[in-house]
Structures are given as structure tokens and as C-alpha cells.
Amino acid sequence: MALFAGGNFTCPNAADLQPGDLNYPSFTVVFNTNAQNVTATYKRTVTNVGTPVSTYVVQVTEPKGVSIVVEPEVMNFQKIGEKLSYTVSFVGTGGSTVSSNFTFGSLVWISQKCSVRSPIAVTWK
């Protein structure tokens, strides 16, 4: 690992990491069917590889039984290669209203020229 890190490297404690902590474009959330108002918040960092000056507005399709808040709702890129971050908070609003063990949705960042979609999968246990 030191070869790739360019020096000494200490691995983080595995107990401190959750699958949602990975900077993947998709989201997976697990909620207890009895839980209400339980929140899971994930942070994502994205890199502009498109038009140098571009604005993306988020559009969310919520999975059944989940409320979603994205901050910020608008990302303004000024150059290619620029990195911006956003957070997504998933609030379990009632798994008892869900008739399946899985519900699905999506988060789409839309600009004038393109859209970037992130699928959302919720598991109810």
C-alpha cells in the first residue's frame, strides 16, 4: 500500500466504514421496516468532465417509503476538472407502507446539454 500511497499508510478501521461511504454514483440504503424518521446521509464528490461552464439541477424520484433531501440542489461548474460535493439525506418515512423488500428511485443531475443519473436502491429489513 505504501507504494501506491507514496509513503506510510494506515488502513482505516473497517467498523468505521459503511458501503454508502464509497464515492460511487449509485446509492444503496438499508432501513428497518419498523423505523420511522431514521436518516442516512451520504456525501458524493463529482468531477466536471463536460462543458467548462455548466449548471446542473437535481431531480429526484423518491423510492416508496423514503424522503430525500439533496444539498445543494444546484451545482455550478466553472471549469473542466473542477470537483464539487453534494450530500443526500435519505429519511425512512415508513417501511410498513412498502409492500416489497426493495424500493427504487433515482437522482438525476440535469444541465442544458446532458444528464447524469444515479440509481437508488432501498432494502427494507
Would you mind describing this structure in some detail?
The protein is flat, with a radius of gyration of 17 Å. The protein contains 1 helix and 8 strands. The termini are far apart. The model has no long low-confidence stretch (mean pLDDT 89). The protein has 125 residues and is mainly beta. A 5-stranded mixed beta sheet has the order 1-8-7-3-5, with no helix packed on it. A 3-stranded antiparallel beta sheet has the order 2-6-4, with no helix packed on it. It has one domain (17-118): Immunoglobulin-like (Sandwich).
Order of helices and strands: HEEEEEEEE
Please identify the structural class as seen in this structure: mainly beta
Overall 3D form: flat
What composes the largest sheet?
Answer: 5 strands, mixed
Total beta strand runs: 8
Q: How many structural domains can be distinguished in the coordinates?
A: 1
Spans of at least 5 consecutive residues whose pLDDT stays below 50 are: none
Structural Rg: 17 Å
The CATH topology is what?
A: Immunoglobulin-like
Multimeric state = single chain
Residues in helix, %: under 10%
Q: What's the rounded overall pLDDT mean?
A: 89
What's the total helix number?
Answer: 1
What portion of residues belong to β-strands? over 45%
Reading side by side through the largest sheet, how are the strands ordered?
1-8-7-3-5
InterPro entries: Subtilisin-like_FN3
Protein name: Subtilisin-like protease SBT1.1
Domain Subtilisin-like protease fibronectin type-III: 21-122
